[in-house]
Amino acid sequence: ELEPKSWRRARARCPKALTMGRCPAEGLEASIHVLFLFGVAAFLAWDRYKRDDLDRPNRKQADWATALARFVCRRPLGIVSIIAAYAAYLSLAAFVDVDCLEARSLHLVTALEQYARQDEVTSYNLDNWESAQKASVSAGLCAPARRRLAAVGDTEHLKLFYAARNRPADVITAKSLLDARILEGRVTSDDGFDDHCYVAGGAGGANRRCSNAAVRSWTDPFFAGGAVVSNIDAAAAEFAESAEGRYFFDVFFTIKNPTSNVSRSEIFFSLTDREAFRQWAKDYLLPTLERASTADTRVCWLNGDVNDIEVEEAVTHDALLAIGSLIFVYLCMIVHTRSPIVATVAMAQVLASVPIGVYLHRALFHVDQFYVLNFLGLFIIAGIGADDSFLLFDVWKAEVDRGPSRTLPEILAAAYRAAGASMAVTSISSAASFFANTYSTLPALRSFGIFCGTLIMVNFAFVMLVFPAALVMRSRMRPPAEDARVDVGGEDVVDASSVQVLERPATPTGDEGDANPLALRAAPAARSRSRSDDDEEREPLNLWGRVAVVLATPAELAEAYQRFKSWAAIDKFFGRTLPTAVKRFHKVILVAALALAVMGFASTAAELKADDEPPRFFHRSHNLGLVYELSEDYFAAGAERGLSSAGGVVNVDVEAPTPGPTPGPSSRPTPAPSFAPTPRPSPEPSPAPSSRPTPTPTPRPTPAPSFVPTARPTPKPTPRPS
Predict the structure, then answer these.
(1) Residue 228 to residue 161: CA distance in whole angstroms
(2) Which DSSP state fits 98?
(3) What is the pLDDT averaged over residues 681-708?
(4) Does the pLDDT of residue 117 top 50, yes or no?
(5) Exposed, middle or buried: residue 399 (CB in 10 Å: 0-12, 13-18, 19+)?
(6) For residue 258, which of 54, 189, 240, 433 is within the disulfide window of CB 3.0 to 4.6 Å?
(7) Does the pTM of the predicted model rise above 0.85?
């Protein structure tokens, strides 16, 4: 109790820390943040000290755009270096615990039912109940007075569901029975199964002895002498009279109707090395299950580790699609900006936002769990980041195209005024809409909103600081081009990216002050050209633009500039074709947009209703897109569901060698974390022992003590009406 709280937090965060629960580098992460703040302050102080009087803006005339533009143009390399270094550190800290000098695991939530769990009193009480039950089971307080034959490792089970393709249909056919028998034989005959099978007693490892109770198959009553019985219907009718039938088959399987749409088997494991089991499941078990479905039967499965592997593979597949979309966006950036360097900087901003968002999601908002839904943020930030980069680049390009009469700070300040406010409004409003999800009672939706809102704000900071600095450095590093020349009556114009104006009035007065800076007077230019070589040559003034005028009148210059400006096809469409069409048909466009909005609102309001099912992240063709539907719709509502694994011990009564029916709520070796204390009502009467009436008036079958997990500290179900 006398130990500091920081030590206790460090020990909880770093289980492999050194003595007294302290991490080897405790406080290093916070120290680096403080050093960065000191570095930024020192950089700003040094910049303020080094700038001259010309760089000091007039407080009465300068605005935020002018001050920021001058700062970026003075120190573009320093800004990029500091931000890139700190972004690299945050990206590293997102996946590495700096204090404990070890990798930081990303707590990815793969249990799909967790996406529908709410933060309310019921969920809070359920979490407390599950935690208390786990602690009681670990302490041996809930163990019944039976012999424990599985004392090796953690007990896991694999549920196999066999569903008829065109339901309603009967899955109890000779072909389905044979296919199921072959699949279960392939699983249990592999050498890897012997390393993880359910242990009946004795030592584990190489000397372990698998139990005959490791497999509970629905096909056993239909096989005699290694072959399918001749009269399957009679065997099914006889099986319907037993308690096993109501466990292995769906709720519609009765004495009067000995047919079933779905059947299930169960395989138990005793795990002493979970990593080895996951590797065997990934290399052999999962591929075997994926190839098991036939034209008549669909095979699905439930197991924590196996389903986690499926989710990881799905995320990896989606990551490849995300990489493909990012490559496409990157190519579009290159085509639009005509500069691979600028496109690379813009795409690097998008990619750097993701690990920084992961770090802030945990460190700033204290949300440790990361949901699969958050991966959609990569596509969202790719679109928003590309839009902001395109907008700032187009405004920058338009300001440069206006002529060679302004310096880089003036051009960047104009770009900030035109695009900065628009980007700020769109970014803040978009981030606010995502941050509004923090008030949701669904943890998954709350985490998604925090993560996406953080991505948008981080990318906005990059676009306002790093991207303009890259544009400035690119403009200064480009090789000087030939000065443009426009002669009176000339048709040809030379493109010049950097030009030199030899003479212009320092303070325009009279008519010159009101004229466009691009329309330089011919007389001063002529005088500069007519000076003899003996005259003192003036120092050129480096400016940025696309046109330099040597001799031209304002009217001739304007005409020459329009001829010079070569537009691409997309520029012509958005700069001339589309505005003309909108101006001509603006009334029709407004009426059509209003009509579509009203129709969309009306159709949405008519069809809008709350969905009582959890979100579907997988298509029905995927195992995880169908297995929960089979488990919930065709079996007892109290049957276990969930992807999370739970270790424990299976208590087996030796005096009952014949497997008996397992009550629906108790078929798991240990309670899953997602199991609700109150079963959700099922649309059909549940044959499993529960608080609801069973479909037949026969007495409740006495459950055989073959596979009864640890007793649950829940109230006994109310007796069904006689």
Answers:
(1) 19
(2) T
(3) 41
(4) yes
(5) buried
(6) 240
(7) no
557 burial class (0-12, 13-18, 19+ CB within 10 angstroms)? Answer: buried
Question: How many other C-beta atoms lie within 10 A of the C-beta of residue 169?
Answer: 14
Q: Give the rounded distance of the alpha carbon of 304 from its chain centre.
A: 21
pLDDT band at 82 (very low <50, low <70, confident <90, very high): very high
Strand 498-501 to 541-544 pairing: antiparallel
pLDDT class for 649, splitting at 50, 70, 90? very low
The neighbour count for residue 150, using CB atoms within 10 Å, is 21
> Residue 128: what residue type?
N
d(CA 88, CA 653): 59
User: Which two structure tokens, joined as six digits, stand for 78?
Assistant: 């320093």
Local structure of 660: helix, strand or coil: coil
Q: How far is CA 135 from CA 68, 138, 312, 622, 669, in A?
A: 58, 5, 30, 35, 16
In whole angstroms, give the CA distance from residue 578 to residue 586. Answer: 11
CA angle 487, 492, 497 (to 5 degrees): 90
Q: d(Cα 96, Cα 93) in Å, to the nearest integer?
A: 5
pLDDT in tens, 593-602: 999 999 999 9
Distances (CA, A) of 588 to 582, 584, 594: 9, 9, 10
> What is the spatial distance between Cα 479 and Cα 335, in angstroms, rounded to a whole number?
21
Beta partners for residue 264, in sequence order = 161
Please list, in sequence order, all residues whose beta carbon lies within 8 angstroms of the beta carbon of residue 720, skipping any fewer than 6 positions away.
692, 693, 694, 700
Closest by alpha carbon to 520, among 558, 471, 575?
558
CA distances from residue 658 to 115, 351, 704, 706 in whole angstroms, order as listed? 39, 59, 8, 7
User: How far is the C-alpha of 693 from the C-alpha of 687, rounded, in Å?
Assistant: 8
Residues 125, 223: contact at Cβ < 8 Å? Answer: no
Which three-class secondary structure state does DSSP give residue 279? helix
Residue 254 contacts residue 696 (beta carbons within 8 Å): yes
Q: In whole angstroms, what is the distance from residue 384 CA to residue 457 CA?
A: 11
Q: Are strands 107-109 and 369-371 parallel, antiparallel or unpaired?
A: parallel
Place of tokens 């755009």: 65
Helix, coil or strand: residue 170:
coil
